[in-house]
Amino acid sequence: MNLSSYRDSRSGTAPRRSTTAPRRLRGRATTAGRASGAAAVAAVLLAGCGAGTGTPNATPHSSPGVSLAPPAASSASRPARTSHPSLAPDLTATATAKACTNSSKLAGWSNQRLAMLTIAVPVSETSVSDATSEVSAGAGGVLLFGSKAPSDLGTRLNTLKSHVPGHLGLLVMTDEEGGGIQRMANLVGDLPWAAYMGAHWTPAQIQQNVTKVATRMAAAQVNMNLAPVVDVDGRNVAPSKTNPDGWRSFSGNTAVVSKAGVAYMNGMRAGGVIPVVKHFPGIGGSTYNSDFGPARTLPWSTLQKVAIPPFTAAIKAGAPAIMVANNIVPGLGTNPASLSPAAIGELRGKMGFKGLVLTDSLSAKAISAAGFGVPAAAVQALRSGADMVMFDLKGNVSAQTSAIATAVTDAVTGGHLSRGRLIDAAGHVLAVRHVNLCS
Questions:
Q1: 353 burial level (CB within 10 Å; 0-12, 13-18, 19+)
Q2: Residue 231 pLDDT
Q3: Torsions phi, psi for 278 (to 5 deg)
Q4: Strands of 321-324's sheet, edge to edge?
């Protein structure tokens, strides 16, 4: 998120040092042997992945009716030949196992359940139980807001996770960037602004200190961090209404941002937390802060040279998730990037990103200024290639969540959003948590 994260976090006056260091084969079978083998093949073909459990069938070597002993010679005058068991059952089992995928399982889910998996529900970190009904309904994640986490946050989150249907895991995310944008520094330790890290720490030091924080986040059951910011913006100012970056950026030098961003990302992963690289395609030098109104990035032709390299570096280093900005990108259409097939198409297509794509907050004024309410924006984001949508902690969260899920399911029913795209999005949400529905 942009300044929405900054507004209710600790204020900062300047980048500072952290206080915490941070042929089938020629063997001949008897007629009975062939019949037995054919029966085994048929059994494997009919079984597939179990409808209820997703557990593949046993291999032919453990299936009844398939003998591994060589068949007897058909004539006493003919020397006995060693016969090998048919390869057909093994090949069929392999094909069957491949046929069971998360996508094939998700195809059996209702549109409502798929839609819920694409929503991150905002909740106060001091009252995470408020999201129980949404989590019970299948929400894919929760987004923690606040500036001081309770000491028993981990226990509370474990209780919340117990309500996930099928116990398939839950993305518990927060903004723990550093500096003035930290939600739970009281529990996990303090990090300085990214600008300080980029100027004073080596990549190895960044990774080391971030790993310490991530390890404590994971211990508190928070498994996703909406960071690092890899926007290239070297302005020595606090983030503001007119400048979303400032000290949130590691540097105004593309190479420095690329190295620092990968180091931060790797530090999070080493500590057991999923990093989210943001804000694609780079909002350094934007005309405004999209939280407060319409904002434009630098032209796409410029971004490709200055802003895209840090994202490319992160993708090459195995970035699991990327957040797309709400800024309009001159040269890539007139919609905010989070709602733009052209912008997300660059990320998915030309850049080859295969991980989870999240939107920035769809409650941003830049979204409403583009003519979208949150539910309609969620549908447009999914159509454009995003996998998960977020919105702010304000108003009636339960009603907003329900409105988003309804808008998505109605869009599928009405033919405005393909069911295949919804299944794909849900699949990315499960994949980032390493959930395998076939095991």
A1: buried
A2: 98
A3: -145, 165
A4: 274-275, 224-225, 171-174, 141-145, 119-124, 388-390, 356-361, 321-324, 277-280
Cα–Cα distance between 16 and 196 in angstroms, integer?
Answer: 6
Contact at 8 Å (CB) between 184 and 176?
yes
End-to-end CA distance of the chain: 35
Regarding pTM above 0.70, the answer is yes
The answer on pLDDT for 333 being more than 70 is yes
Residues 174, 175, 178, 181: is their CA dihedral positive or negative?
negative
Tokens linked to 172:
């518990």
Phi, psi of 390, rounded to the nearest 5 degrees:
-130, 155
- The average confidence (pLDDT) of the chain is 85
Among the residue ranges 73-77, 154-158, 194-198, 409-413, the one predicted with the least confidence is: 73-77
CA 108, 113, 119, 124 torsion: positive or negative? negative
Rounded Cα gap, residues 205 and 310, in angstroms: 19
Residue 213 corresponds to which tokens in the numbers above?
């924080």
Nearest to 311 by CA among 273, 348, 363, 359: 348
Q: Is the dihedral of CA 126, 386, 207, 3 positive or negative?
A: negative
Whether the upstream peptide bond of residue 281 has omega within 30° of 0, thus cis, is yes
- In angstroms, the Cα distances linking 410 to 268, 294, 413 are 38, 28, 5
DSSP 270-334: HTT-EE-EEEET--TT-SS-TTTS--B-S-HHHHHHHTHHHHHHHHHTT--EEEEPSSB-TTS-S
Helix (H, G, I), strand (E, B) or coil at 208: helix
Evaluate whether 192 touches 15 at the Cβ level (below 8 Å). Answer: yes
Characterize 308-336 residue by residue with b for buried, 16 or more Cβ atoms within 10 angstroms of its Cβ, and e for exposed: bbbbebbbeeebbbbbbbbbbbbebbebb
With 0-12 / 13-18 / 19 or more C-beta atoms within 10 angstroms meaning exposed / middle / buried, residue 244 is: buried
Least reliable range by pLDDT among 68-82, 129-143, 199-213, 396-410: 68-82
Give, in degrees to the nearest 5, the angle at Cα 351 between 348 and 356. Answer: 40
Residue 323: strand pairing partners: 358
Token duo for residue 3: 């300044």
Statement: residue 61 has pLDDT above 90: no
- The predicted model gives 261-271 an average pLDDT of 98
Q: Work out the burial of residue 291: count CB atoms within 10 Å of its CB; fewer than 13 is exposed, 13-18 middle, 19 or more buried.
A: buried
Reduced to 3 states, what is the DSSP secondary structure of residue 40?
Answer: helix
> Residue 277 forms beta bridges with which residues?
322
